[in-house]
């Protein structure tokens, strides 16, 4: 699929993706039972989305309820999120820190989304780890969580994606991750402890399982309110999905 990095392993067969027509938007995956799967897979300590804002986002008031609403966590103060918890639309981003297409999105598209929608209170972006490209992906995901514990996830995100990296080339090995942590001002002792903790690895695995339960096998992948968008699509693709849902919610 253009603009998406794909692994060689088979996807989870518990769900069967189907295509949804969305004009000239990217190919998307729509799974009718995704909300049920997400609820069943959600650990007891993970908060569910509020019934009011999350269910209404992108549903257009009176229209069919958004089947992806349960995936939006909307946790106040979440260091892996940008924007207000009660924003009308939540963009859930499944990504791998080694994925070149994720990097392209981070450099070219996400800043526009933040400027035009997040900063205006219309959109919230929630990060999900989908580290499937190798050991460096898993280690980088854990490092991102450790940076988040010190309130600097998005600084880590920007530093990793500042340039394109060859997959499993050593560009995100132990030394590289500690160098990034130093440059963004993290306490290295705490950083090392947090990224190696059982809780951190479990949180990364939870995100990965959420993605694979929906049949997502490549990154980046997004749920834009009620619209799945797969791949590093241009800003205009996200704008169309967001604007249509904002208009329908009026």
From TrEMBL:
Domain named Thioredoxin: residues: 45-247
Pfam families: Thioredoxin_4
GO function term, MF aspect, one: oxidoreductase activity
Keywords on record: Disulfide bond, Isomerase, Membrane, Oxidoreductase, Redox-active center, Signal, Transmembrane, Transmembrane helix
Stored InterPro entries: Thioredoxin-like_fold, Thioredoxin-like_sf, Thioredoxin_domain
Transmembrane segments: 21-41
Family label: Belongs to the thioredoxin family. DsbA subfamily.
Protein's UniProt name: Protein-disulfide isomerase
Organism of this sequence: Micromonospora echinaurantiaca
């Amino acid at each position: 699929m253009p603009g998406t990095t794909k692994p060689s392993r088979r996807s989870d067969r518990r769900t069967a993706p189907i295509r949804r027509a969305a004009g000239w938007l990217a190919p998307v995956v729509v799974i009718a039972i995704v909300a049920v799967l997400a609820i069943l897979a959600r650990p007891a300590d993970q908060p569910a989305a509020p019934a009011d804002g999350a269910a209404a986002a992108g549903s257009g008031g009176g229209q069919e309820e958004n089947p992806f609403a349960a995936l939006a966590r909307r946790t106040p103060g979440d260091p892996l999120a940008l924007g207000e918890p009660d924003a009308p639309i939540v963009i859930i981003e499944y990504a791998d820190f080694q994925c070149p297409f994720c990097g392209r999105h981070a450099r070219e598209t996400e800043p526009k989304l933040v400027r035009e929608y997040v900063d205006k209170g219309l959109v919230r972006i929630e990060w999900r780890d989908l580290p499937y490209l190798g050991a460096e992906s898993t280690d980088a995901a854990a490092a991102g969580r450790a940076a988040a514990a010190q309130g600097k996830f998005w600084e880590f995100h920007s530093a990793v994606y500042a340039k394109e990296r060859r997959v499993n080339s050593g560009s995100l090995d132990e030394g590289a991750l500690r160098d990034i942590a130093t440059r963004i001002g993290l306490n290295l002792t705490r950083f090392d402890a947090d990224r190696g903790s059982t809780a951190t690895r479990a949180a990364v695995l939870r995100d990965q399982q959420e993605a694979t339960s929906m049949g997502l096998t490549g990154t980046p992948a997004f749920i834009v309110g009620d619209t799945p968008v797969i791949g590093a699509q241009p800003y205009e693709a996200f704008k169309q999905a967001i604007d249509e849902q904002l208009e329908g919610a009026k």
